[in-house]
């Protein structure tokens, strides 16, 4: 009974206090890895093996790969290779490596509190990889969401977030992007959206340099404040924002 009460308290609209910042928007566009799901160990393992196989510095490759479509990284590092074939190897390895893929703090409660028509996911994963990771983490799949399979230009290009805003039916300027990677922050800002950045992956100076409007630790620092009707803005409370 107590657990049910605690969950209701976390998913019910909150009252913003003087120590919180308030953000109003019509829709929310979540990145996946590093925002909703902790897949960092799996990503690092896959790209480390790939880098070693091809004679690259694993640490530099892992940093380069995070938050961007895998095909983009393959093209940049192996300009003369069969890019599609190499990318399929990477994707297959990522789909098979789900060890430690879990929801990040606050994710389940935040998503449960939001009207389903007001949020979606915009990820650099392929659709197949995104679905596998969402299921592994026990997270809901939105009715419509945007993956690297749906776009031509990956982050930091704004195409993915422009498409995400279109999926929800709102102008980008009325949406909030939630990101952890500098490339994704830049993509969100270039689309015309405002961006909340998480400190789950990149250092604070990198998030600031990329143009984040607000910075918090993770989803546990965000609560839904109010939703008046399906046609009005929603308000989010940000607990102890770092920016």
What number is the mean pLDDT?
91
Element-level helix/strand string: HEEEHHHHEHEHHEHEHEEE
Radius of gyration: 18 Å
Give the amount of beta strand, in percent.
15-25%
Nutshell version of this structure?
Helix content is 41%, strand content 17%. It has 243 residues and is an alpha/beta fold.
Describe this structure in words.
The protein has 243 residues and is of the alpha/beta class. The chain has a five-stranded parallel β-sheet, covered by helices on one side. Strands 1-10-9 form a three-stranded antiparallel β-sheet, with no helix packed on it. It is built from ten helices and ten strands. The longest helix is centred in the N-terminal third of the chain and has 14 residues, at 40-53. Residues 1-9 have low confidence and may be disordered. The protein is globular, with a radius of gyration of 18 Å.
Core attributes:
243 residues; alpha/beta; Rossmann fold; 2 domains; five-stranded parallel beta sheet; three-stranded antiparallel beta sheet; 10 helices; 10 strands; 17% strand; globular; disordered N terminus
How are the SSEs placed, and which strands pair?
Layout: H1 2-11, E1 20-25, E2 27-30, E3 37-38, H2 40-53, H3 58-65, H4 70-77, H5 83-96, E4 102-103, H6 107-113, E5 119-121, H7 127-137, H8 159-168, E6 175-179, H9 182-191, E7 194-198, H10 204-210, E8 214-216, E9 222-227, E10 234-239
Parallel strand pairs: 2-5, 2-6, 6-7, 7-8
Antiparallel strand pairs: 1-10, 3-4, 9-10
Helix pairs in contact: 2-3, 4-5, 9-10
């Amino acid at each position: 009974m107590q657990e049910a009460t605690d969950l209701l308290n976390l998913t019910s609209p909150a009252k913003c206090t003087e120590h919180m910042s308030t953000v109003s928007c019509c829709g929310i566009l979540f990145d996946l890895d590093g925002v909703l799901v902790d897949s960092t160990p799996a990503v690092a393992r896959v790209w480390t093996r790939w880098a070693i196989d091809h004679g690259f510095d694993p640490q530099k490759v892992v940093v380069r790969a995070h938050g961007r479509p895998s095909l983009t990284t393959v093209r940049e590092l192996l300009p003369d290779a069969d890019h599609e074939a190499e990318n399929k190897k990477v994707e297959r390895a990522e789909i098979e490596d789900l060890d430690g893929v879990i929801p990040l703090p606050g994710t389940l409660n935040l998503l449960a509190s939001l009207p389903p028509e007001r949020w979606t996911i915009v990820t650099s994963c392929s659709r197949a990889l995104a679905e596998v990771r969402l299921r592994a983490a026990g997270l809901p799949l939105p009715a419509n969401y945007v993956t690297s399979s749906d776009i031509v230009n990956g982050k930091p290009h704004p195409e993915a977030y422009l498409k995400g805003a279109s999926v929800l039916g709102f102008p980008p300027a009325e949406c909030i992007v939630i990101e952890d990677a500098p490339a994704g922050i830049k993509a969100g800002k270039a689309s015309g959206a405002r961006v909340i950045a998480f400190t789950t992956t990149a250092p604070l100076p990198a998030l600031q340099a990329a143009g984040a409007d607000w910075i918090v630790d993770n989803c546990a620092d965000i609560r839904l404040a109010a939703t008046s009707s399906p046609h009005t803005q929603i308000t989010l409370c940000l607990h102890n924002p770092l920016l």
